[in-house]
Design the sequence.
């Protein structure tokens, strides 16, 4: 049974986190973000006056939400995930220790094989039904289903038994200790089990969060209204939120300038830069630093089945050009998938690859791949990826490969990505580099050691990923992380290019903007000044 002497307070977890960072050798360098602002406590930003109550916040984003993918961490859902729903815990952005949310406290067994959660009382769903331990059990079991796509499924599957002691006490029994359990708690949306089928269809979206869904028109956007029964005292401040789908990034900026919108989510960096000198607006850079851009290989497709060709690609691509010309210098070039906040981050290894055409050509010659045809596939719905594809195609042509860029519609790209069927090189973005490294190597679609988008199959990789996931000692975690970094640099089935961040381009009237460490918008204390 859990021991009360082993209570994991946020302070104790933060101290443990800092020791792990020191042990693994994480660098402390911040991402380079010229002309932009990044603040871990952006939500605390004020103008020296009391936050205004009321009003409607108008948000624009380039793609519609996709309720059917709500559990798969799909970027367009970031505006609805934390506004309509809550999670069990939420990470402190400075210490990376978990703070209470729907779970008020927790007690972990000394052997790491169980954890007991005390749940918040007095919480209701938007339907009026009381939140209980049965809803937590349902949320976990839902992630285990074969039909549910989630990059944290591996953690849910490690929970082999659930005991509901009472309506507000639940104990999770684990098959083995897991190092990223709180990564699951941070992302596990507590949904209404009575309307799950309607949720996935987008016809009824019910949570416990600060706002209720008032209307949703697929392809156009959605409207939220204040949840007057919200459990958090004094929140939310806004009366309503309107989220509109605006496919063209430049049109989003025009709407901001005219006052038609207040907040733009992930507008193209170069379009965001066009307002940086206007005193009415501000570009805020998420401190989560969880937006990595990469070029990856389907290792079943020739000549990408030869790691020398994959290494040549890594040496040939001009990361600095991508950072400056495509991402507006928001981020830093890298050869590894980790944000600087990750315990697996290694500054020296992150600088391993840079543009060196001489080395790249020597590898291509050694592999006998001169003139070989290579497709460079990208999601046509994302302007950033299209521009990266142009640079990659140019660089590979200089390398001596017959590189051809091939756009795919978003649905086709994502389907082939998850199935491992992309026909060559592919360009995309990934998250999960900012928290525990096991979450990335055990769950993220490009890196999952058990099944990934590159079809890279390696017993050594699986073993290291499992060691990192189950590690209970800092020395063990450091050893596994170091070995994983070496393997990723050697095999190059994914070549990370730039570690960047999600951005929020906003009117300065918007105060108290916040987000989770997965970049779900947290608008509990947001107001329009």
Sequence:
């Amino acid at each position: 049974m859990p021991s009360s002497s082993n209570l994991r307070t946020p302070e104790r977890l933060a101290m443990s986190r800092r020791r792990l960072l020191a042990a693994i050798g994480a660098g402390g360098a911040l991402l380079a973000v010229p002309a932009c602002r990044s603040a871990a406590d952006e939500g605390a930003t004020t103008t020296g006056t009391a936050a205004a109550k009321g009003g409607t916040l108008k948000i624009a984003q380039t793609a519609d939400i996709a309720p059917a993918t709500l559990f798969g961490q799909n970027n367009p859902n970031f505006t609805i995930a934390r506004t309509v729903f809550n999670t069990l815990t939420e990470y402190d952005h400075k210490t990376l220790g978990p703070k209470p949310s729907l779970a008020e406290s927790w007690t972990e067994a000394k052997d790491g094989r169980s954890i007991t959660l005390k749940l918040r009382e007095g919480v209701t769903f938007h339907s009026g039904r009381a939140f209980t331990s049965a809803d937590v059990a349902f949320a976990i079991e839902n992630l285990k289903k074969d039909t549910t796509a989630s990059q944290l499924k591996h953690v849910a599957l490690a929970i082999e038994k659930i005991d509901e002691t009472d309506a507000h006490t639940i104990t999770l029994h684990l098959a083995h200790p897991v190092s990223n359990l709180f990564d699951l708690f941070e992302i596990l949306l507590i949904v209404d089990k009575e309307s799950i089928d309607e949720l996935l269809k987008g016809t009824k979206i019910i949570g416990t969060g600060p706002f209720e869904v008032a209307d949703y028109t697929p392809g156009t956007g959605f409207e939220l209204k204040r949840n007057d029964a919200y459990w958090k005292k004094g929140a939310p401040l806004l009366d309503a939120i309107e989220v509109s789908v605006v496919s063209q990034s430049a049109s989003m900026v025009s709407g901001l300038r005219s006052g038609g919108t207040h907040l733009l989510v992930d507008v193209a960096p170069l379009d965001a830069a066009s307002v940086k000198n206007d005193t009415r607006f501000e570009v805020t850079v998420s401190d989560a630093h969880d937006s990595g851009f990469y070029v990856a290989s389907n290792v079943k497709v020739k000549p990408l089945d030869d790691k020398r060709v994959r290494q040549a690609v890594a040496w040939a691509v001009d990361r600095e050009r991508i950072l400056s010309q495509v991402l507006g210098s928001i981020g830093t070039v890298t050869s590894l998938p980790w944000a600087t906040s990750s315990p697996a981050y290694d500054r020296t290894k992150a600088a391993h690859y840079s543009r060196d055409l001489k080395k790249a050509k020597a590898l291509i010659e050694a592999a006998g791949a001169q003139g070989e045809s290579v497709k460079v596939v990208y999601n046509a719905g994302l302007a950033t990826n299209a521009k990266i594809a142009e640079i990659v195609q140019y660089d590979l042509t200089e390398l001596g490969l017959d590189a051809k860029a091939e756009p795919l519609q978003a649905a086709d790209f994502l389907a082939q990505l998850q199935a491992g069927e992309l026909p060559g090189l592919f360009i995309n973005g990934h998250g999960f580099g900012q928290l525990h490294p096991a979450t990335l190597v055990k769950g993220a679609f490009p890196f999952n050691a058990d099944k990934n988008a590159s079809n890279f199959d390696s017993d050594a990789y699986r073993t290291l990923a499992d060691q990192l996931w189950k590690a209970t000692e800092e020395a063990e975690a450091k050893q596994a992380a170091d070995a994983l970094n070496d393997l990723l640099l050697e095999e190059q089935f994914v070549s990370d290019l730039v570690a960047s961040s999600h951005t929020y381009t906003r009117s300065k009237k918007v105060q108290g903007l916040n987000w989770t460490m997965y970049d779900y918008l947290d608008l509990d204390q947001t107001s329009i000044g």
Q: What stands out?
A: The two ends are 50 Å apart (CA to CA). Residues 1-48 have pLDDT under 50 and may be disordered. The first helix runs from residue 10 to 24.
